[in-house]
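ASSEMBLY PREDICTION REQUEST
Request ID: AP-0331
Submitted by: J.K., bench scientist
Number of chains: two
Total residues: 493
Priority: normal
Notes: Please return the full assembly, not individual chains.
Input sequences:
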Amino acid sequence: MKKENILEAKNITVSFGGEKVINNISFDLKDKENLVVVGPNGAGKSVLLKTLLGTTPYEGQINWKKDIKIGYVPQRFVQEKDLPLTVEDFFKFKKISINQIHESLCSVGLHDLSILKKKMGVISSGQLQRILIAWGLINNPDILLFDEPTTGIDIEGEETIYNLIAKLEKEKNLTMILITHDLNIVYKFADSVLCLNKKMICYGPAQSTINEKSLNELYGGDIKLHKHTHEF
Amino acid sequence: MNFSIYSLITAIFVGGISGYLGSLMVTKKMSLVGDAMGHIALPGMGLALLFGHNVSLGAFAFLLLGVWVIWYLEPKTNLPTETLVGIIFVFSLAIGFFVTPDLELLEALFGDILKISTFDFWMAVSTSSIIFFGIRKIYPKLMLGFLSEDLAISNGINIKKYNFLYLLAIASIVALGVKVVGSLLVGALAIIPAAAARKISKNISQYTLFAGVIGALSCAIGTIVSNTYSLSAGPTVILVSISFFTVTLLLKNDVKTKISV
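STATUS: Completed
Returned structure:
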């Protein structure tokens, strides 16, 4: 059975003050598949995600499936210690019941519900990341846009966040666009991969697209490729 | 007209709604927008005083004009909004100084809540109530949008629409507030209660409640004290709210010291 495209992006160009931060990118995404976007810092990855969300002006065409529900996990969220916004307040932005909040916290491995009364500004970056993931998955979105969830998290934390994404992906059969600078993620999650450094360096099925030539072009250095095949 | 219960009630309504909206302004890091708007309102107040019209209505008309000019010039000049606001507000202050009759300049700059008409009273009470119930309805959407525009948009929130309503609400409380504390101090009416509330609140409901209550109390106490000791009401109100702010700072520091011991 042919899967339906839920997103078609054609010739996307985004300019800030005359400079093209994304230049002529095209790709599409089928239901229940994952696209991983890789590239160095400043390559325009987060801008691409925001463009897909509709928060950044662009040239080109972005066609989402009709009435699509998009979940979004941002790279960061304001963490000010004295901002009187509790985790519970944050979930209530979604207008859901307290039971749903509890379920949602448990699904991301936060079982101690006393966290609900804590301020968003004082929880650890690992907890914040889990909360943002839980928040993005409320109401079962058709697609989850995931922006570099590793930023600011220690290696151990990073590993468990990706374990969590892997678990959630299996449980919920998610469709995702995941942004990362970490190539290992490609082999774990990607059906297709897009290498981005302002322009599109490579795009295609994950296993055949990433090679030393495309990586050299992407990162401009002597990146050696070690395919990690172990499971989490 | 001497001090009346009407002045007191007006001050309480305006102070309460200003503090309540201030909780959003502080979150959006727009603490100075009230000050800027207060200045932009001055020529309108001056003209109203000159021709014997209602000061708040004159202020509101010029606020709408000012907001429109900034919105219109922003894409044309490519300047940051803040810079444009900076230019427009000092321009307004200069013009306002010339059009306001000398005798009433102090009233325009620092307010005179003790001198209000029945119309002022009813306008303040009804407008504050409408803004309160309106903003309360969209408060979570505004707050989320201020904390993360991307999350708000992914949640289906029309940021532009809500920002517009929010700015309209601020323009309205500024137009009311200039009557209480005047053009120069009106920004403080919103910001200080919110800053104080932020220090002592554990969650959003407390934050909005305390901001509103501190705003209302500051205006009430300030009005009574200024009347009792024949002081200018505007500066007195602001000093009272700064006292509240200082107390919350001390409370907060006290807690910190206990923890470190």
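REVIEWER COMMENTS: Chain B touches chain A through 22 residues (CB under 8 Å).
SIGN-OFF: pending second reviewer
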